[in-house]
Amino acid sequence: MRNHPAHDTRKRFIGSRVPRSQVSRSGVSRSAVGKTRAAACIVTILALTLIAAPGVQSRPMAEDLPTMTVVDAVGREVIMPQPAERIAMAGRAVLMLADALYLFPGASERLVGVGSITQGKGNFLKAIDPHYRDNTTIFSSTVGPEQIAAVRPDVVILKRIMRNEIGEGLEQLGIPVVYVDLETPAQYERDLQILGRIMENRNRSEELVDYFRSVRSGVQQRTDALDPTVMPRVLLLSYTESGGEPVFAIPPSSWIQTDLVHMAGGVPVWTDTHPGGGWAPVGFEQIAAWDPDVIILVAYRQGVDRVKQRVLSRPEWRQLRAAQHDAVYGFPADFYSWDQPDVRWLLGLQWLATRLQPELFADLDMHSEMRRFFRFLYSLTDEEIDEVIVPLLEGDLH
Known about the structure:
It is built from 15 helices and 13 strands. The protein has helices at residues 30-52, 94-101, 107-110, 124-128, 145-149, 163-172, 185-198, 202-223, 256-263, 284-290, 304-312, 321-324, 345-356, 366-378, 382-388, and strands at residues 67-71, 77-81, 87-89, 111-115, 137-139, 155-159, 177-180, 233-242, 245-250, 267-268, 280-282, 294-298, 328-330.
């Protein structure tokens, strides 16, 4: 696993270049002006607080230091120090950002601040990097711009959805912020290249894009030729509990879970019902009305094997077509479930193809693919995979 030399504590800071917004003066109400002035006051107070606060140092512009420009997912040109040796990450879905950054050698040495990762069976990065917490500040789930600025980052990487909540405050402070999405296969290819530019490792980003693209195309080249009329009708459900009772939900049609079903050779039955937004609760009556050929269960907060056992113990579930044909499956997981837009979605795609089109993918050994995945992406040895990953595997892998 990785060595972790001491961080360089240089105090240099280069701001980000943000496109200037166009503001119309006509038709602006007094209340809107008041809100704008109030927001400006808050930002000014925050900036003064950071300058005055003990241990928080504002790193002024230094034109004589080398810089580089990275175009982010929003299309902004972001100027940052070259190299960017102090990287911070925060906000929702931070585990997906961190897992993607660790695909690049040297990420451990550069990460100085990261949001708390609480999903699944623990922190994967802590398990593979013994120095994960040595010089890394762990942010709370409610972290604000001032706490992030306190670690003196050269750049902060956020998901685009965090721009209003965290990003704009950091931008106002002059801290370089790079936005990525990491939500769809196409966005993964683009955003891995963005991370490669931040890490100044284009060769690695090209290797990663080639790997993701080859695995995805290896599945789709087979399923694209299928007749849609003979594809299985599939229902993917997330499972939680409320008051001891199960609660099921479906993903939006635009989310990667839906994409995975399409790419793996299935027809998602829920897309007309839920075109957008987050996970949407769905009752058993609707599940029975769909009566799909295949049901895929996802669990983020508890073991999916236990979830599947509990679901199939209910008499009403045993009447469903999928249950009667032994086609209710638990989505595999190690530290995290393989269905979500973490880097593991690639494993999820391959596994789902073996379940939806078993004859077409009879040659695909998921245990071998899992080992290849962690060897290539995280440089884990087979011994480390056996020690760190294999004991946590669950779901219908066999």
